[in-house]
Amino acid sequence: MTSIKDVARDVEVSTATVSRALRGLQGVSEETRERVMESARRLGYVPSPSAAGLASGHTRTVAVIVPRVTQWFFAAIVQGAEEVLRERGYDLLLYNLAGDASARHRVFETSLLTKRVDAVLVLSLKPSPDELERLAMLGRPVTIVGADMPGWATVRIDDQEAAATATRHLLELGHERIGYIGGATEGVLDFTAPSARLAGYRCTMQVAGRAREDDLEADGEFTVAGGREAARTLLSLPDPPTAIFAASDEMAIGALRAARELGVRVPEDLSVIGIDDHEMASYFDLTTVAQPAHEQGRVAAAQVLAALAGEDWSPEQVILPTELIVRRTTAAPVRRARRRGR
Known about the structure:
It contains 13 helices and twelve strands. With 342 residues, the protein is of the alpha/beta class. The strands form two sheets. Strands 2-1-3-4-5-11 form a six-stranded parallel beta sheet, with helices on one face.
């Protein structure tokens, strides 16, 4: 089996230089680094991550704590982060909470992260004060994606403004009764987006002089199935909305299915808008407020890598832009009498 000594002998440098070159550390010229990498490939040398971690205190692994990896938004962030980490020779260690409070406790409140990772990315969770203290005690770079946490490195969009953009679009088209499909604003995972997007909808409606109606707000659980059921509830009201703003594209897609099942034409009878620009949004011609989910992962990974490289780095709060993309699921409302056939 090829050892680090074999690579050092082949390149005619010390084993310490080989180790630094393979780990991407400073103090090695680019020419020497390339020679070491070429020799390691040619000789078939594969460094042991555990041995490297014991020797250097670094594991070249970054933990990503994700609420539900099966949902498109979280998967897109993870993919973006993994691309950047892989380019720099780091591995990604995924902790999928899957909506389980005990899993969150196991990750944050125990020593699970200690000595296993060099940095941590937390996706769309707002850590409690105790959890923030635990993260600080790790002594490792931490970036929080999708939450506003002063004093911590964060990457996010302005969720409230994204919701306001979607709601204003429907108001500007002439809609007055606008239904909202969102998610629970309280729960064991403490997502930040549901409450911010609900606030954006409510504030925009209030500014437009629209009185709040609880019946026009429904919980779609941020899933396609949940959006379908929530839309069926809204469309069954005695005076149904002429437009629905869903706080995610997946719920908006569910709303489109409900409309089709109920014989409600989109956009003639009902306008539907979401947030995300999900990979299926264009397939459904869905109007949406696009957010750069993939880029959020890349930026977050770059942040922790900059800290690990010892660059001049301080926690930065990055807010990425969103964009209204108008497709074919929104239009001006038809006259109410004609729409209801009365």
